[in-house]
Amino acid sequence: MRLTLAAIYFLVTLNASASIQGGEAIEAGGIKQWIQYSGPSEKAPVLLFIHGGPGNSVISYADKFTKQLRQHFIVVLWDQRESGKTAELNKSNKPLTVEIFINDAIEVISHLQKKFSQQKIYLIGHSWGGYLGLRVAARRPDLLNGYFALSPMINQLESESLSLKAMQQKAIEENNKEAQQELAQVEIPFKNGVQLYYHRKWISKLQGSPAPTKDKVESWASTWLNLYNEACQTNFISLAPQLDCPVYFLIGSHDYQTHFSLAVAYYQKLISPEKKFFWFTNSAHSPNMTETAKFEKTIIEGICSLNSHVLRWQTLTIKCLNSHKYYYIELKQIFEL
Questions:
Q1: Predicted TM-score (pTM) of this structure
Q2: Which domain holds residue 122?
Q3: CB 247 within 8 A of CB 137
Q4: Are residues 226 and 243 in the same domain?
Q5: What tens digit of pLDDT does each residue of 159-217 get?
Q6: Looking at 230, 263, 286, which one is the last position of a domain?
Q7: Which among 305, 336, 303, 131 has a CA at the least distance from the CA of 231?
Q8: Helix or strand (DSSP H, E) at 78
Q9: Are residues 105 and 248 in the same domain?
Q10: Does residue 199 come out as left (phi exceeding 0), alpha (psi in the -120 to 50 range) or beta?
Q11: Are residues 32 and 89 located together in one domain of the fold?
């Protein structure tokens, strides 16, 4: 690595730390939407995490997979409409469609650009959030320094079908009558919450992950199934064969929920300024939770190695005792890789 010292400045402050954190309700899509952020400096690169589901706010447990990320970036968590704190603030003012969520995401990104005075940000999306992030990257690559697709929905209609066939075959091989009977009732796309529950019940066993309850799945379906089925119609291999920003894929090798083989197929055909693929061999659908250290390391090293124009911020804290007050000196550096 070649180190180029591009700028040095000294910022003297009486504060004990230069780190920032906060939360606020912003206007996006005509309603109030909640964002929460934390990072080492207000000048650190912004990394927006788009949660999955849809409807699965991660704010309550995001510390488990962002602790190291928050040492390098301003990590922003956003509760989408009808999710988490945004749902507590207000209901959606429109029916839930893919287009509305794409526009919401773009407005949130625009807000972060202005708030932190950055021309572009980094984006990571998980599952449904991975789908949404790809739609944003396809439409507005100019907003992004890079995109990290974590277990994304690539061609979810095909994914559900591939997984259903695998589960049915396994049920036959194991002579599992219960699984055979329940999976025989499943149609793709899902017609109701019961079909979705049977699919997710047995896919959880296939992946070795905890199975959701029937009540929880049916409750989720009452709000989200129509939106989910709409998103399932998208095939990114045909919709977005080219993305004009760097793209990293983070994929669990046991992920049958967003089938790993489709991520491979898309990656192989995708044209982009830079693309990389990372396998998480001990993970299924949520590598950020099951291989957290590797997940965070992949993000940190990925952002720091995208290209020679990527900024890395390091803080050199020098404690000077003067009249019992601590002073801090912040050193801004650009690393050219």
A1: 0.87
A2: 19-155+235-304
A3: yes
A4: no
A5: 999 999 999 999 999 999 999 999 999 999 999 999 999 999 999 999 999 999 999 99
A6: 230
A7: 131
A8: strand 74-79
A9: yes
A10: alpha
A11: yes
